[in-house]
């Protein structure tokens, strides 16, 4: 274990705690041989570590003779201080390890705004009541964020995963649904084929598989369109509100527009044509085993999504 202590030039830090551990064993065991056996190290390495420590702090810590070893006054002072330091350090490490096995502490979660608004809001409300000892912070952002820099424990992504270097788990899938508002349809011709889609009225947003083009399929046929689109926004929620306001046509995750379709605020276009399915993914930023907090929240999300799948199966297809 290595510690770098930064200070002014008159301050000297112990850069390697193994050196301190060896010194303490020498004092406690009374000889190099006994210390080496206790630490499962060679006697020469024990002697070398002590010499490095003495050189580092420029002080003799141990009196050496052919018969015995005894700490100097400086050595006694360092040993007494080290005992309290090491004991406190072990206590802190023990308490930190316990956190991984307890449903307490802070959990930071990141997710896109659409998924957060539609799903995580309900999940979080139930979760904090079920686990009152867990603090929950949710970062909603449709832009890429530095998960490590933001100290995020668990991140969710919808669509087509872009994050690299993290442990990923797929939790589910969703359909993309092409929609427009009744107000828009009253003012414009309803498309019968993907080629009929008016590019000038296409609302591009960050939740689409690709901002510059879309692919439609129908019974083995595939059509790729590249609507120029005068409206392009990053936020899925903003694009959704624009579609509700009659600004144009766009595609959204089925879970985001299901209620709008049922209530008639939006209606589905080209229902016989499908777009690529998107996925719902969870990412863990730490390489270690997941903490209890992470496992509990992930289980809550999985249970919620499984319940939605059951409801959709009973209700049938997404309304048109």
Q: What shape does the CA trace take?
A: elongated
CATH architecture of the largest domain: 3-Layer(aba) Sandwich
CATH superfamily membership of the largest domain: Periplasmic binding protein-like II
Number of helices: 9
Spatial strand sequence of the major β-sheet: 4-3-5-14-6
Distance N to C terminus: 62 Å
Number of domains: 3
Beta-strand portion reads 15-25%
- The structure class reads alpha/beta
Roughly how much helix do the residues carry, as a percent range? 40-55%
Q: Which spans of ≥5 residues are poorly predicted at pLDDT below 50?
A: 1-11
Brief write-up:
The protein contains nine helices and 14 strands.
Description:
This protein has 3 domains: 17-99, Winged helix-like DNA-binding domain superfamily/Winged helix DNA-binding domain (Arc Repressor Mutant, subunit A); 105-174 and 279-315, 3-Layer(aba) Sandwich (D-Maltodextrin-Binding Protein, domain 2); 176-276, 3-Layer(aba) Sandwich (D-Maltodextrin-Binding Protein, domain 2), CATH 3.40.190. The model is unreliable at 1-11 (pLDDT under 50). A hairpin with a 2-residue loop joins strand 9 and strand 10 (221-225). Helices cover 41% and strands 21% of the residues. Helix 1 packs across helix 3 (43-57), helix 2 (32-39) crosses helix 3 (43-57) and helix 5 (113-130) crosses helix 9. The radius of gyration is 31 Å and the shape is elongated. A 5-stranded mixed sheet has the order 4-3-5-14-6, with helices on one face. It has 320 residues and is an alpha/beta fold.
């Amino acid at each position: 274990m290595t510690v770098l202590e930064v200070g002014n030039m008159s301050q000297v830090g112990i850069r390697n705690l193994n050196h301190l551990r060896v010194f303490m064993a020498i004092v406690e065991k009374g000889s190099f041989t006994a210390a080496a056996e206790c630490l499962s190290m060679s006697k020469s390495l024990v002697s070398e570590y002590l010499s490095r420590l003495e050189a580092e702090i420029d002080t003799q810590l141990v009196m050496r003779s052919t018969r015995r070893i005894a700490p100097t006054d400086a050595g006694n002072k360092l040993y007494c201080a080290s005992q309290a330091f090491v004991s406190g350090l072990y206590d802190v490490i023990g308490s930190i390890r316990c956190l991984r096995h307890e449903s307490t502490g802070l959990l930071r979660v990141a997710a896109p705004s659409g998924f957060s608004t539609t799903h995580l809001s309900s999940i979080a409300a139930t979760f904090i009541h079920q686990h009152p000892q867990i603090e929950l912070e949710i970062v909603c952002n449709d832009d890429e964020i530095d998960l490590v820099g933001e100290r995020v424990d668990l991140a969710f992504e919808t669509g087509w995963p872009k994050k690299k270097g993290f442990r990923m788990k797929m939790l589910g899938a969703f359909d993309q649904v092409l929609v427009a508002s009744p107000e828009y349809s009253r003012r414009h011709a309803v498309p019968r084929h993907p080629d009929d889609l008016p590019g000038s009225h296409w609302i591009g947003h960050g939740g689409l598989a690709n901002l510059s083009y879309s692919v439609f399929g129908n019974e083995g046929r595939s059509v790729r369109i590249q609507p120029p689109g005068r409206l392009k926004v990053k936020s899925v929620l903003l694009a959704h509100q624009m579609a509700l306001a009659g600004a144009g046509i766009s595609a959204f995750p089925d879970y985001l527009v299901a209620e709008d379709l049922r209530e008639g605020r939006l209606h589905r276009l080209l229902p016989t044509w499908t777009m690529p399915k998107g996925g719902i993914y969870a990412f863990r930023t730490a390489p270690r085993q997941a903490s209890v907090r992470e496992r509990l929240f992930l289980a809550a999300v999985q249970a919620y999504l499984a319940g939605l799948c059951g409801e959709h199966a009973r209700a049938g297809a997404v309304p048109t």
